[in-house]
Amino acid sequence: xxxxxxxxxxxxxxxxxxxxxxxxxxxxxxxxxxxxxxxxxxxxxxxxxxxxxxxxxxxxxxxxxxxxxxxxxxxxxxxxxxxxxxxxxxxxxxxxxxxxxxxxxxxxxxxxxxxxxxxxxxxxxxxxxxxxxxxxxxxxxxxxxxxxxxxxxxxxxxxxxxxxxxxxxxxxxxxxxxxxxxxxxxxxxxxxxxxxxx
Length: 198
Known about the structure:
This protein is mainly α.
């Protein structure tokens, strides 16, 4: 009897989560897709938690079971936020699939650099989207046309570089060859640039 009610409550949570996400995405302002989807998960959890405590049908569940459900729903909301809208919003892999379909199902392999530079960057407004996300996250500020790291941004960049150098796969398959190239993408980066500012 309890299992059926737990399943019913969780099914209701999924419906409320999806409805909240759709309303938020279609009718409200969204600054950052990931943060917005996280908020949707929290809202759905709160609404369904109220249902758990006030609807008599769920009285058979103890307080501990209800709290466990709340934690599970928060985790499900987080999993949804990061695995569906955020992945689709950020994914170059999905862009490639969509672009292949748009171009009739095939693109010459040697043209992908041009596709990324001339189409992907513009079509997905990549610079605007990523700068907006970083501004909203507090990792950068823009001052007199200069994008500057904040202390938080510097800490995240240091962590990211440390993790990349030490914990990303050292033998990753890249177009038929195993390589550690992505553990240090700046390894062969030029230092002669004229776009720095302070």
